[in-house]
Amino acid sequence: MKKRIPSKSSNYASLIEENAYYVDKTSYIQTLESISDKYIFFLRPRRFGKSLHLSMLEFYYGIQHKDRFGDLFGEYFIGQPENITPLRNSYYILKFNFSAINTQIENEIIQKFDAEVERGIQDFTSAYPIFSEETVNSVLQVKGNVEMFKKFFSMFLQTVPDGKIYLLIDEYDHFTNELFAFNTDHFREIVSRNGWVRKFYETIKIYMGEGIIDRFFATGVTPVTLDSMTSGFNVAKNITLEPEFHNMAGFTESELRGMLQNTIYKEGKFDLDVVISDMRSWYNGSKFSPDVSDRLYNPQMVISFLSSFGSNFTYPREMADINVTSDYKKIANIIAPLSHDDSDNIISEVLNTDRITERLTIQYNFELPYTKTEAVSLLFYNGLLTIESAVVSMYNYVIPNYVMKQMYWEFFRYKFTMEKELRYDNTKIDRSIMQMFTEGKIDMLVEYVHSILKNLSNRDLQKFSEKNIKMIFMTLLMGNNAYFVKSERENNEGYADLLLIPTQLNPGKDNFLLELKYLKKSNKGNLEVEKSKAVEQVRKYKTELEAEGIICKTYAIVFVGKSEYAFEEL
């Protein structure tokens, strides 16, 4: 029987009870129990399936769910008799979720943290009615998360002296990552030797030492907070980069295919291979170790797409989940501490080549300067870059997929328009794109780029080049979902400036190949010569693409300062 496309719920039991499709990750329970480390940190970008994994662990290990084991796990790997582990349903689960802590008002952060600790303890006492009402009240009336924590463990030890706790923490670093981005002084203060975050984890370490907390699993996005409090909490292992845990969150392509086949696929309704190929371009590509072959799909992006596509088998107008693309401001936060030149170098290199080579910062040391290496590493941990390969200590990072590529261009467009005090006319942009796929012409697009140039100051144009022209084109073409925009596509003759391939949302069929040139106003006399060079150059690219079966509407375009332009279709 077909299952439902899962909702975005991170509650494992709800998915199973609703007959929703669950990508079986339960084999990792065996893997986690097979290693010697019992205290684990696992980092992945936001909305990558971490919370659902924690929920799965909660229902597998929680003693209160013992009678539901068959219903919850019977059809999955860990539910088969030969795979069940000895620790099944043997723990009291204590769970905290720090993802909702708002960092906007500095002096309220600790209050919200305390409230989350209190909520976690309240949930525990509801799930396990082992304390008297008087005892529960005596714990919850204690002020401060550390003192409340200590009181809770004291009461637990008195009540269930042989009981073992599995402590689960979701998004352990959410609020500290936010602080790190815009308030580093306060970040250092709360994770320092006397900081309250440090003391909270030191308290956890104490009860690990006493054997009350027998296992620990925490998720997060970056190692920044973990590294900052290492000396106070040096008992946990970070398995983020280890190949054997690479696929523990996120979907492999075979898992995605299984989801499609067992949910919405109907013979003749759509071509399964075509849909997976398109989804690969939009949502695949994440790799968190150089020593694995699988590239992972972002689960939330996949589920958002399939929830829409499954209703009528047409692609949604917005291929990117707004909750993901809105993260583009994270790019600004990550590069903000750098010098202007370093931040511009990162963005320019990534936008022009889709890749960058740097080391990977495994441990952050705030006694040392924050450099380009740390910034690129944070882009990786946040899922904005991913590992392609590594040679010795140098990592080759790439943009994982088209959604992330759009996010970079959204960021650059915002930065460009703010710095140049420009305002884009989205109606004109949309009409320009429509002319391309309805008439196969670029007249309106080129004219609109010219109008942007006319609004730039002479100072802005002093260091202008073909690269800057191309970046303006990209800010207009990205984000409309009409074309896959490929910049600097390598071929035997060099690098084509822009290659535009229609997406499934595009009613037009034309590919476009654009070669761009820029002349300063003082070199206006060379216009025809440069146009001829552009035509000769792009003709070679056109011929080579045709040999690959890619037929393009091909244009050579030359801008002269901000006064005029010329273009020719081949």
Provide a concise account of the structure shown.
By secondary structure, the protein is of the alpha/beta class.
User: How large is the share of residues in beta strands?
Assistant: 5-15%
Alpha carbon gap, first and last residue? 55 Å
| Rg (CA only) | 27 Å
Low-confidence stretches: none
Major sheet: 5 strands, parallel
Q: Supply the number of structural domains.
A: 4
> What class do helices, strands and sheet pairing give?
alpha/beta
Write down how many β-strands occur, each being a DSSP E stretch of 2 or more residues: 13
Q: What spatial form do the alpha-carbon principal axes imply? A: globular
CATH T-level fold name of the largest domain: Rossmann fold
Q: Going across the major beta sheet, what is the strand order?
A: 2-3-4-1-5
Helix content: 40-55%
Mean pLDDT: 90
CATH architecture term of the largest domain:
3-Layer(aba) Sandwich
Number of helices: 23
Account of the 3D structure:
The protein is α/β, with parallel strands linked by helices and 570 residues long. It folds into four domains: 24-247, 3-Layer(aba) Sandwich (Rossmann fold), CATH 3.40.50; 250-319, no CATH class; 324-398, no CATH class; 421-569, no CATH class. The protein has 23 helices and 13 strands. The protein has helices at 12-17, 27-34, 50-61, 69-73, 109-127, 133-140, 145-159, 174-182, 184-191, 196-209, 224-228, 253-261, 272-283, 299-312, 322-325, 329-335, 340-353, 372-381, 402-419, 426-439, 443-454, 466-477, 527-547; strands at 39-43, 92-97, 165-170, 213-220, 237-238, 355-358, 386-391, 394-398, 483-491, 494-502, 511-519, 552-560, 564-569. The strands form three sheets. A five-stranded parallel β-sheet has the order 2-3-4-1-5, sandwiched between helices. A five-stranded mixed β-sheet has the order 9-10-11-12-13. Helix 6 packs antiparallel against helix 7 (145-159), helix 7 (145-159) packs parallel to helix 10 and helix 19 packs across helix 22. The longest helix is centred in the C-terminal third of the chain and has 21 residues, at 527-547. The chain is globular, with a radius of gyration of 27 Å.
